[in-house]
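Question: Hello, beginner here. Any chance you could explain the protein record under this note? Any guidance would be welcome.
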Amino acid sequence: MEQVLLKMARQLRAFDEASLMALWDKYSDTVQRFEPSQRWEEAVLVLAMIQGMRFKNQLFNHHWAEGRQPGQPAVPAPILASPLDAAAGPAPKKTGPKPHGKGKVLAFRPKDAGES
């Protein structure tokens, strides 16, 4: 199983982020409209892979910038959505047109032990 996942990671890494981000809105919309189907499950995985590529690139750039600027203060690590952010309530909605090619990080939290 690990070899299959590594092969998928190598294939994903071969794509450029801009091409993947062009698909963000399509898969984000599909994921937001839950339906108990294989199509919805696959859309969730595609969206997670797109977000994974974005995260990898942001983390890479953060570490690269730290190493390329000796003697300067370290750049703070990128802020990532955490399950605790969702508990604080929804963020205020922004108005106006949505910028093209921009995505948002969906906050996920584990199921509470009492939930079924």
